Amino acid sequence: MTASGDGPADGSPLDRIKVRSTRPREAASIMLLDRSQDCVRVLVGRRNKAHVFMPNLHVFPGGRRDRNDHRLSFSGDINPAVLERLKTAYKHSASESRLRAIALAAIRELHEEANIAIGSKNSGNTLLPFLPDLTNLRYMARAITPPGHPRRFDTHFFAQFTDEAGVDPGDIRDSRELEDLRWIDVHDVSAVQLPDITGIILADLRASLQSDASLPFGRPVPFYYTRHGRFVRDLL
Fold first, then answer.
1. Residue (of 220, 186, 211, 189) closest to 35 by Cα position
2. Is residue 8 pLDDT above 80, yes or no?
3. Distance of alpha carbon 175 from alpha carbon 68, whole angstroms
4. How deeply is 110 buried, as exposed, middle or buried, from its count of CB atoms within 10 A (0-12, 13-18, 19+)?
């Protein structure tokens, strides 16, 4: 659950009031999965210590949806079952263009933060050097940052297998947003420090892989949020 443009926090009383009233912004994150070895590995990187939101923690690549994401051309469209789950998340009140833009944001952020392009590299896009391919994205989770944080996001988590995307796991490269990019075994995350919600979503991923290692597109999607100060898990 990352975002660009984080700056230093201000501890003034007025700023704390603003923090409490912050509304979550739409965001997308991607769990890039490598199943070429004996274990399934997921890509994570460490947030820079200067960030207000989740500094020094390892997270999946991702960030807020930009206003231009809906304008991105793409080479392969989102799976209908994934689109239907996204519609359920918004009670069918969001347009398909807006929902597709959330998925496009996940792929754009992966490229910006890890130098990984999922799609055709011969692109007519002016915003990206490739045409994103949404075909094999799985919708895995949704989580809204609780009130009281300096940044709040309504984050949609997707998963993508490297072999389906034609991605070489060795091609990752650190960025200003994510440092120490590495592949970790989804069953052993002891080498890194993760946010609580990242650990929870990884636990859901492990359960999903155990149930069906192909990660079916139409699976129920856990939705995490806070209601009256209590942490809630629903299914979409």
1. 186
2. no
3. 21
4. buried
User: What's the residue count for the chain?
Assistant: 236
Name residue 149's amino acid: H
pTM of full prediction above 0.85? yes
Residue predicted with more confidence, 187 or 125: 187
CA distance 118 to 164: 10
Per-residue pLDDT, averaged over 4-10, amounts to 35
Name the residue among 128, 122, 123 with its Cα closest to residue 108: 128
Map residue 197 onto helix, strand or coil: helix
Q: How far apart are CA 182 and CA 120, in angstroms?
A: 24
Beta carbons within 8 Å of 61's beta carbon, 6+ residues apart: 2, 29, 30, 32, 43, 45, 109, 110, 113, 114, 116, 178
Give the span between the Cα atoms of 220 and 79, in whole angstroms: 15
CA distance 198 to 57: 10
Domain 13-235 has CATH 3.40.630.30: no
For the chain, what is the largest distance between any 2 Cα atoms, rounded to a whole number of angstroms? 52
In this prediction, residues 223-232 reach a mean pLDDT of 95
Given a contact cutoff of 8 angstroms between Cβ atoms, the answer to whether 81 and 6 are in contact is no
pLDDT at residue 69, as a whole number: 95
Q: How far apart are CA 99 and CA 89, in angstroms?
A: 10
Reading the block at residue 214, the tokens are 């192909």
Instruction: Report the candidate in 160, 197, 158 with the shortest Cα–Cα distance to residue 58.
Output: 197
Q: Binning pLDDT at 50, 70 and 90, where does residue 21 land?
A: low
